[in-house]
Amino acid sequence: MSSQVESTVKALVEYESELDRIEAEMLKARGAMAKEAEALAEAAKARAIAKAERQASERLATVKQEAEAEAKAIGERGKSSQNVLESSISRRRTRAVEGVVGRLLGEPR
Can you list the positions of beta strands (E) in 1-109? Predict the structure, then answer.
């Protein structure tokens, strides 16, 4: 009977050793999975940031083009207004010169 007890104890010790080994492998696998999950999360974060930066750059380029077009339109309107003003000044100057010359020559108003 003693040999049966020894054999049973030996089997239980081997079983316990196997459980310890499996538990150690499980902890190692869990750590590896955690590292892999962290790496995947970092990669996803990098992709999301790159996409956001790309979209921001595209939007910025669009806004820049719109602003440049608006600035050009404002410049053209300003140039047009300047031309109208210069033309008006020129006509009024001509009338003023004619009026002064007329008065100097004694012409009635």
Answer: none
DSSP state of 97: H
In whole angstroms, what is the distance from residue 20 CA to residue 12 CA?
Answer: 12
Instruction: For residues 49 and 55, give the distance between their C-alpha atoms in angstroms, rounded to a whole number.
Output: 10
Number of helices and strands in the chain (H, E) = 1, 0
Interval 9-28: pLDDT, tens? 888 899 999 999 999 999 99
Tell me the pLDDT tens digit for each residue of 55-104.
Answer: 999 999 999 999 999 999 999 999 999 999 999 999 999 988 888 888 88
